[in-house]
């Protein structure tokens, strides 16, 4: 039995994960950022004890705890170096949690943990090497090689959402120009769709968002395209071109067996992955001599974080 | 004592490398591609024996042999999967060489081997993590993490020269659009310089290549810029912008301690690296919370391949 903690901006989700990677107990607490981190960690520890009690278990029966956290993580030292979501800097969360729960505790970036979850029990089950790209507000990434999280060399993390696919392109929230995040996040999809809908008053996308472009969501351009709306098809084609470029960059770097797409946009499943596979295969170096990864959508959804975090425990 | 073999399109360079990573014996044979690979490998073996004899040594005193080869390498199986330079496909070179030389033999991609050489004895000596980008006809890359070659997951290699920095940009020789190679290789620099010189008849670059743009070389735009030639300065600024974009992509992926630039363009040394450092520092994710690699030029030049190959032997 292992314990996975998935820290999010709104809530902290905890789960008891068995050998079959099933979540057999859960508890969630709010991410209260009005209190010092020490207090939030104490609440996490209390919740863990509560969850164990609910399951009729004790901490001694638990092999260890894994934490997935947003931000830049120093996994070796167990420190959250910087988290924009939490407004935290240099928080020694592992040491702090150990004060309350005396077991082995590991930490990783939340996208890394989710990628590990998908490899252990999700869309890349059975694979040794996989890359997860989450297409949400931003583009998060997690790279798994030999069934372990790839962290690169020095602290700072492997941030594939912040590889530029246009040296002089759209400005990203990180300050750089042309980041994949600025072109292939769900937010970028909305931007492209809003622009296209505004240019094309005849597009059904306008109707679909009740003529209020603020109501645009990530499903509308896909639905419009499916209904044969030309502007909608253009949006999807443009978006998939950007995403394919990012995926091919990932393949030419990591040669994973699978590229897993997560986040809101991934709800489109084959509708999204089928055209991407076509686009990507001609962009990978080495042609038939190089391995071209399969492209799939995440299978675990929000549980990937808990299951992956639990699998940080060795 | 170890033995390094650096296979090139024109010649195969071999060296005896001591514990201090000095090359204490050398021999070179032409890369004769008119004969079957078995025959070329036999010549390589003969040359190795000759080199050992010249040094008054025997194969038994040699810890092993490392080979650096261009192309897509399956290091585990010791096979050159595909080399465009050699016109080879699925050549089991390690097995073939072992028929003649009964020692441990390892193989790696030549840029990987050169990167390893720079980490063991060159521009990144003392570093654990470094990335080499060679700016020549193409852009080769070698990634070293924890003092070992990073090969990614499946065969096909980590080809950082073929990460697109412009999803809809210049067509690369690999077929893809916008590859770093199409923007930051020495060949790309010549293309940019030729175009600019043609647009600006007043530019001193025209004079420097005797009004024959075919005579353009990688030094001319740098010399012109240094002399205050506006068109020359524009060429360098444009080229460095592309290269900085590629380097920042490398840093956001691998977080190396050093990015080493090799190949012809790297002869510019600080002239090249100083402005790049300025450009890159604002492009790296995490700002002051992430590690930003130093940018240096290669120190070993052509010897990096031999020294790195020798250090493949464990």
From TrEMBL, chains A, B:
One of its GO terms (molecular function) is glucokinase activity. InterPro entries: ATPase_NBD (IPR043129), ROK (IPR000600). Pfam families: ROK (PF00480). It is an enzyme of class 2 (transferase). Its EC number is 2.7.1.2. SUPFAM superfamilies: Actin-like ATPase domain. Keywords: Kinase, Transferase. Belongs to the ROK (NagC/XylR) family. This is Glucokinase.
């Amino acid at each position: 039995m292992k314990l996975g903690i998935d820290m999010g901006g709104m809530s902290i989700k905890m789960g008891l994960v068995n050998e079959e990677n099933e979540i057999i107990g859960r508890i969630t607490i709010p991410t209260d950022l009005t209190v010092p981190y020490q207090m939030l960690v104490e609440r996490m520890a209390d919740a863990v004890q509560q969850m164990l009690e609910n399951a009729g278990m004790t901490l001694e029966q638990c092999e260890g705890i894994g934490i997935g956290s947003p931000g830049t993580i120093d996994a070796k030292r167990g420190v959250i170096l910087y988290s924009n979501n939490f407004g935290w800097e240099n928080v020694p969360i592992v040491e702090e949690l150990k004060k309350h729960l005396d077991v082995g505790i590991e930490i990783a970036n939340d996208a890394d943990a989710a990628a590990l979850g998908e490899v252990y029990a999700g869309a890349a089950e059975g694979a040794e090497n996989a890359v997860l790209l989450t297409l949400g507000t931003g583009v998060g990434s997690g790279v798994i090689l030999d069934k372990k999280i790839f962290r690169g060399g020095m602290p700072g993390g492997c941030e594939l959402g912040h590889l530029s696919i246009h040296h002089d392109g759209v400005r990203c929230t990180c300050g750089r120009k042309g980041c994949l995040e600025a072109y292939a996040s769900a937010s970028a999809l909305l931007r492209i769709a809003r622009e296209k809908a505004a240019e094309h008053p005849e597009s059904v996308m306008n109707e679909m968002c009740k003529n209020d472009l603020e109501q645009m969501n990530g499903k509308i351009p896909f639905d419009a395209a499916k209904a044969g709306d030309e502007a909608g098809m253009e949006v999807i084609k443009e978006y998939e071109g950007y995403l394919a470029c990012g995926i091919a960059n990932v393949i030419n770097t990591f040669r994973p067996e699978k590229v897993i797409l997560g986040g809101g946009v991934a709800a489109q499943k084959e509708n999204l992955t089928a055209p991407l596979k076509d686009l990507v295969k001609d962009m990978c170096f080495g042609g038939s001599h190089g391995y071209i990864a399969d492209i799939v959508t995440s299978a675990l959804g929000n549980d990937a974080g808990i299951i992956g975090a639990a699998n940080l425990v060795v």
